[in-house]
Specification:
387 residues; alpha+beta; 9 helices; Aminopeptidase; Acyl_CoA_acyltransferase; 13-stranded mixed β-sheet; two-stranded antiparallel ribbon
Length: 387
């Protein structure tokens, strides 16, 4: 099997069999262009995997959104790899793609790190496709000088605490069934489970909107007059963007990271603006509520909601952070409740709000549980150091 790397198509990488060809996808000019078939096939495979795992396609990244995100190489190099049968001649079609891997490598901050996922069409499982894709990803990462790899695998549900065959991260938080798909695969490649992220969903309409209103009122009272909420849409105000960039930098290290080999990612104002532009290009509306400390004038916390503009029935609770020096004033609840109240007007057709939190982040999970988020599954973060 030959595996090609995008900038050097003649170079072959180590492969386990001659059944599959893995290649790096060239980003098409548009989704209608002649060369878009492999890219569209990669997106189709991801849709099939997400639907098989969770029972819905909400977590699938549509081609138009993925293309815009992958084109933004300002701070992260992103590659899509596809697996096809080795006997296919010429450019593969959309239907020829049986597996896909999506690889991300930061260009600032975590320049030692490569993160990726592996997606195999359900009817092609256990045929060597995942191994071929992972071999190719690891070869590219090595070529780029990446010494730590993180593989994420989603698992629906979570075994009970008294289950016999479970895999638990060193943090002791989060459980995965020992026979779940992906466990033997990751272990066999030398990866170690470092962290479990709880995947939770808040379903709409809420049984009682008054619960959110009450939590908002209580958190505003607990915060007192020293704190005020500030909300913006899509673009952070110029007078706040520097403070927001500093909070985003803090987000990279102030949340639980377990044993993951992560270092601080310094977010600049320029990166904030580029991220905002990429969101617009990909058709993603973003609402951000921040908390300002009135005596100092500083932003001390924020929470973001991502809202695909073409899919009004779903949204994603993204980063939420309160600066350590200002914790203990119920600001986390204030931020999340304020956003939920705003969503009533912004997205009256909303059906599901998705979020992820480190399983050991008990404080944030307690807020989510109080607001009605239901545990849905665990995303396992498997790490391998190759230096």
């Amino acid at each position: 099997m030959s595996t090609t790397q995008g900038t050097n198509p003649d170079r072959t990488l180590p492969t386990p069999s001659d059944r599959w060809t893995v290649s790096v996808v060239a980003l098409p000019e548009s989704l209608e262009s002649q060369g878009a078939e492999p890219f569209l096939g990669a997106c189709d495979v991801q849709h099939a995997v997400e639907t098989a795992t969770w029972g819905h396609g909400d977590l699938y990244l549509p081609p138009e959104m993925r293309l815009a995100i992958m084109r933004d190489a300002s701070t992260t190099e992103r590659l899509a790899l596809v697996a096809t049968r080795a006997d296919i001649e010429g450019e593969p079609t959309r239907e020829d793609v049986v597996g896909a891997a999506f690889l991300a490598m930061e260009l600032t901050g975590n320049t030692h790190l490569a993160t990726f996922d592996v997606n195999v069409r359900p009817d092609a499982l256990r045929s060597g496709v995942g191994t071929a894709l992972a071999d190719a990803v690891e070869a590219i990462a090595a070529e780029r000088g990446r010494t730590t790899l993180v593989l994420d695998v989603g698992h629906a549900g979570e075994p009970p605490a008294d289950a016999e065959d479970v895999v638990t991260p060193p943090t002791g938080a989060g459980r995965i069934a020992g026979d779940a798909p992906g466990v033997a695969f990751a272990r066999g490649r030398g990866y170690v489970l470092e962290q479990g992220e709880r995947y939770s969903v808040l379903h709409f309409p809420l049984a009682d909107d008054g619960v959110v209103d009450r939590f908002l009122a209580e958190s505003l009272a607990a915060a007192g007059p020293d704190y005020e909420a500030v909300t913006w849409y899509d673009r952070c105000p110029d007078e706040l963007v520097g403070q927001y960039a500093a909070l985003s930098t803090l987000m990279s290290t102030a949340v639980p990271v377990a044993g993951l080999d992560l270092v601080e990612h310094v977010v600049t104002v320029e990166e904030v603006r580029q991220t905002e532009q990429t969101a617009r290009d990909s058709g993603n509306d973003v609402m951000t509520t921040a908390v300002r400390h009135r005596p100092s004038g500083e932003l001390v916390g924020y929470s973001e909601i991502q809202m695909p503009s073409s899919y009004g029935f779903l949204a994603f609770q993204d980063d939420t952070l309160v600066a350590p020096a200002h914790r203990g004033h119920r600001l986390g609840m204030l931020l999340k409740a304020q956003n939920l109240v705003a969503l009533r007007t912004l997205r009256p057709e909303l059906e599901r709000l998705h979020t992820w939190n480190a399983e050991e982040n008990r404080h944030m999970l307690s807020i989510n549980e109080a607001l009605g988020f239901a545990p849905t599954g665990v995303v396992a973060l498997w790490q391998k150091r190759v230096a």
